[in-house]
């Protein structure tokens, strides 16, 4: 029992964080607001392959780093902190381990090298971001993982409020698979934590900068306490997400629910702290806020996870109370 | 990142479980804020100590087992699973004890830790004053050096356990020229000292859970100074860190309450409105979040990190979770919620007691408003007022 990353793991996480914050800046993101075809948009994909991020979870024999899923979850949080636009996390954290489990070596090697894009599909929504860039899709059907070529599905563009999310409805989504959905849920929750954290950071920066009544507004308790509330919720969401990444089980659902509640609180608090500026397209906050709204419903929305949790926790044979948190 | 208990940890858990199942009293003890209940809880502390279970994280020389903090969490899980009595010695073992280990002289460790662990000396806190609550740096009670003694005069309030306890620890102004958090010292005082008057204060439930202390030229030897003279603020902050952070409220007590809440819900489900179900799930989920976060924090501390301002988030979370959980129970009990005991009273009024106690959580150990200021200023970096 040791819920802490080793120094080697932390180094990997910090390196990813450094790359994301260095390259995936708000200025970088703004380029996407003005373009809408993939031919003309910039991409960090080659860098992801070079940095080993795509192969983070792949076996060493396949050119990967064979890291734990919990490391992937920490990196997903770092990706959330910059509202990463490209589907690195789903591909590296879901497709790669499932391809390895399937023994799909060619596809796995392709993904790790950056040459092939295999996007996982959540059977509940059938909605896939950046689906137009995928070569193949990974679905769960009849209790098995299955690969589908892009030529065998139809993609219908959808219009998300998040301008950086190129969203499509896929004609064949499958009926889900734990190996895909649980990983998707956890990475989504971790990403939401990162978004929440960034929204707090943006708000703190704004509250230190903006003056009213001759003072920085961040010196007022009315502002301080709201941001302290969000901070507290984040501090008590990240660990359950990390635990879910380590042991799966019923805490996966709790992790997602907490991440949703925290992200919605973070978004509402952030816009309140930003005042009128937060309501503009010009200020960066909206890019993080809209991503949070979008991701709250992805990989199982709140209702979905609450309903599952209800059956698990209210069951007659449910094991509850002290000493029942781990190994569930 | 490893979420599996080792064989040693599982063995330790079993050992704790076996001892508790053989020794925990069958009936719940009377409130520790009554003389009878206090004495019975003291007896229980002595029994724990005799079994070497008083404070498992303490060094063996002081009656502990030298266990890690992770072991401590396991111990607590078994303790609350067994529904063992509340710890009447908590001010001492959870707060003052660790402070003495950090700041005390060898003689002080020898003098105070053993009787504290044994339940022979029960400690009360003496920090707040009528004019110094959230603004603790406004303390006015003074301790004047006179040869080998301090002469203490002034007034303390909200002193938990002081009515029946043996000793108190508090902050006193030792430099008369000083102001705010300078010139304060942490001093240990026997509650039966001449010149010290203890006036019980009845709490919400009518029992004297805390007291007002009047010091009229109370003399204590200078050996009772803990830490540096005039450096008491730093010593007090260390104690406050223990109180807000890990030791005072481990997750197990809340997990036990959440499990009871699920049971209460199921017994009453057919007459409850649909919204209650989600409140019950929220209570359970929040205790899981608190557990995961505490194990993560303990892993950091066991690897050498220290906690300071982060403890404020902890205190906000557990106290507000506890209050929300008990309010849900009150809602479920509905027309029976007001019944303290006897006919119609659910679990003999235990939820009602718990609800009243939960209302104190966001107030004691530094109000949650103060905790939010600390987080905003020292963790988030917002400007001071």
Automatic annotation (TrEMBL), chain A:
Keywords, alphabetical: FAD, Flavoprotein, Oxidoreductase
Cofactor names? FAD
Q: Domain of life of the organism in this record?
A: Bacteria
Which residue windows are transmembrane per the record? none
| MF annotations from Gene Ontology | acyl-CoA dehydrogenase activity; flavin adenine dinucleotide binding
* One protein family per Pfam: Acyl-CoA_dh_1
Q: What's this protein's family per the entry?
A: Belongs to the acyl-CoA dehydrogenase family.
Protein known as: Acyl-CoA dehydrogenase
TrEMBL record, chain B:
**Record-level Gene Ontology MF annotations:** flavin adenine dinucleotide binding; oxidoreductase activity, acting on the CH-CH group of donors
Q: Which cofactor does it need?
A: FAD
Ranges for the Acyl-CoA dehydrogenase/oxidase N-terminal domain? 6-120
Can you give the residue ranges of the Acyl-CoA dehydrogenase/oxidase C-terminal domain?
A: 230-380
Per the record, what is one GO cellular component?
plasma membrane
Q: Which stretches make up the Acyl-CoA oxidase/dehydrogenase middle domain?
A: 124-218
Query: Keywords on this record?
Result: FAD, Flavoprotein, Oxidoreductase
SUPFAM superfamilies xrefs:
Acyl-CoA dehydrogenase C-terminal domain-like, Acyl-CoA dehydrogenase NM domain-like
Fetch the InterPro entries from UniProt. Answer: Acyl-CoA_Oxase/DH_mid-dom, Acyl-CoA_Oxase/DH_mid-dom_sf, AcylCo_DH-like_C, AcylCo_DH/oxidase_C, AcylCoA_DH/ox_N, AcylCoA_DH/ox_N_sf, AcylCoA_DH/oxidase_NM_dom_sf, Mycobact_Acyl-CoA_DH
- Family recorded in the similarity comment: Belongs to the acyl-CoA dehydrogenase family.
The name this protein goes by in its record: Acyl-CoA dehydrogenase
């Amino acid at each position: 029992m040791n819920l802490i990353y080793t120094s080697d793991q932390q180094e990997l996480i910090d390196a990813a964080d450094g790359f994301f914050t260095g390259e995936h800046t708000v200025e970088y993101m703004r380029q996407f607001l003005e373009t809408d075809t993939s031919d003309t948009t910039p991409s960090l994909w080659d860098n992801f392959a070079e940095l080993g991020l795509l192969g983070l979870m792949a076996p060493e024999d396949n050119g990967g780093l064979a890291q734990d899923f919990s490391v992937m979850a920490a990196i997903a949080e770092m990706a959330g902190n910059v509202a990463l636009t490209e589907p690195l996390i789903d591909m590296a954290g879901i497709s790669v381990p499932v391809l390895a489990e399937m023994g799909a070596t060619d596809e796995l090697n392709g993904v790790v090298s950056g040459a092939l894009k295999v996007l996982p599909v959540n059977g509940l929504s059938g909605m896939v971001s950046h689906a137009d860039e995928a070569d193949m899709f990974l679905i769960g059907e009849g209790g098995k993982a299955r690969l589908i070529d892009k030529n065998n599905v139809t993609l219908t563009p959808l219009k998300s409020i998040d301008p950086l999310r190129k969203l499509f409805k896929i004609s064949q989504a499958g009926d889900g698979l734990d190996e895909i959905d649980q990983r998707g849920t956890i990475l989504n929750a971790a990403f939401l934590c990162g978004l929440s954290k960034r929204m707090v950071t943006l708000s703190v920066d704004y509250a230190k900068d903006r003056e009213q009544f001759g003072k920085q507004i961040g010196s007022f308790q009315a502002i301080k306490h709201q941001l302290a509330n969000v901070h507290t919720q984040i501090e008590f969401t990240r660990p359950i997400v990390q635990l879910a990444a380590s042991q799966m089980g019923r805490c996966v659902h709790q992790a997602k629910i907490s991440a949703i509640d925290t992200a919605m609180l973070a978004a509402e608090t952030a816009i309140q702290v930003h005042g009128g500026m937060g309501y503009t397209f010009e200020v960066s906050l909206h890019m993080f806020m809209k991503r949070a709204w979008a991701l709250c419903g992805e990989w199982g929305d709140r209702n979905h996870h609450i309903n599952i949790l209800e059956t698990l926790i209210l069951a007659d044979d449910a094991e509850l109370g002290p000493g029942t948190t781990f190994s569930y | 990142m490893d979420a599996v208990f080792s064989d040693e940890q599982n063995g330790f858990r079993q050992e704790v479980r076996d001892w508790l199942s053989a020794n925990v009293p069958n009936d719940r003890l009377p409130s520790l804020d009554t003389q009878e209940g206090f004495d019975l809880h003291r007896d229980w502390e002595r029994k724990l100590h005799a079994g070497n279970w008083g404070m498992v994280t303490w060094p063996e020389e002081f009656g502990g087992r030298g266990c890690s903090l992770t072991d401590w969490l396991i111990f607590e899980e078994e303790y609350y699973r067994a529904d063992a009595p509340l710890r009447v010695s908590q001010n001492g073992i959870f707060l003052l004890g660790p402070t003495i280990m950090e700041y005390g002289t060898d003689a002080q460790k020898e003098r105070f830790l053993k009787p504290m662990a044994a339940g022979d000396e029960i400690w009360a806190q003496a920090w707040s004053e009528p004019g110094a609550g959230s603004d603790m740096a406004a303390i006015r009670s003074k301790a004047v050096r006179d040869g080998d003694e301090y002469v203490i005069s002034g007034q303390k309030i909200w002193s938990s356990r002081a009515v029946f306890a043996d000793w108190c620890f508090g902050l006193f102004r030792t430099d008369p020229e000083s102001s705010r958090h300078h010139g304060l010292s942490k001093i240990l005082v026997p509650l039966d000292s001449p010149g010290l008057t203890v006036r019980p204060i009845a709490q919400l439930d009518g029992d004297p859970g805390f007291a007002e202390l009047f010091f009229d030229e109370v003399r204590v030897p200078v050996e009772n100074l803990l830490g540096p003279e005039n450096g008491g603020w730093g010593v007090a902050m260390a104690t406050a860190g223990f109180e807000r952070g890990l030791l005072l409220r481990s997750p197990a007590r809340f997990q036990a309450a959440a499990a009871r809440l699920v049971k209460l819900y199921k017994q009453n489900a057919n007459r409850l409105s649909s919204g209650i179900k989600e409140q019950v799930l929220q209570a359970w989920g929040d205790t899981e979040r608190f557990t995961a976060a505490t194990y993560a924090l303990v892993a950091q501390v066991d690897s050498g990190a220290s906690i300071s301002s982060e403890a404020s988030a902890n205190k906000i979370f557990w106290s507000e979770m506890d209050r929300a959980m008990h309010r849900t129970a009150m809602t479920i009990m509905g027309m029976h919620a007001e019944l303290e005991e006897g006919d119609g009273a659910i679990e003999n009024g235990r939820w009602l007691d718990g609800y009243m106690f939960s209302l104190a959580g966001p107030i004691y150990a530094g109000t949650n408003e103060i905790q939010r200021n600390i987080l905003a200023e020292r963790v988030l970096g917002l400007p001071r007022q």
